[in-house]
């Protein structure tokens, strides 16, 4: 349970589905509830598949390019911390490559569930690098099962939040979502620094 809560909390904070809600609403504006539900489901499935593939196959990609786990943790920590600072400054969507120009382009696509919603909004560099690192640390069957379960629960929550995005906007409002996102930003920065330090410490240990 402790491992589940750790992975769940880390993933949920880095992915920040609450911060994606306003963008999701703008991209699905004018759609009927049935279409919104379908987009929510497809986006959640895409995110789950991307994260699971990253968890199991990410280390082979690293090996192919000759990238060490320490280097990944350092790079991942920088990306995660960067996302946290973006949340604090209210620039989360811009940090994920969702400028006004990108939003307008997304409206022209028939399907937005894969990009930009799944990639890079939710399954971004931070969450992907986090899972690749977790695969190196947790290799037992029980730990792998717990990790996949945590990913599944996070994706389920993402689905619920996207499906009820209109209600969330009405209850919290833009200011409420922004305030919560800033609080989450502190947590994300702390996670990024912890991840960064773990990579530096492992690198120092290797050199010594």
Topology summary:
Elements: H1 2-15, H2 17-27, H3 33-65, H4 69-88, H5 92-95, H6 100-107, H7 113-122, H8 125-137, H9 141-163, H10 165-207
Helix pairs in contact: 1-9, 2-9, 2-10, 3-7, 3-8, 3-9, 4-8, 4-10
Q: Keyphrases for this structure?
A:
globular, 208 residues, mainly alpha
Structural write-up:
The chain has 208 residues and is mainly α. The protein has one domain. Helices cover 86% and strands 0% of the residues. The chain is built from ten helices and no strands. It has helices at residues 2-15, 17-27, 33-65, 69-88, 92-95, 100-107, 113-122, 125-137, 141-163, 165-207. The protein is globular and about 60 Å long.
Outline of the structure:
The protein is mainly alpha-helical and 208 residues long. It is built from ten helices and no strands.
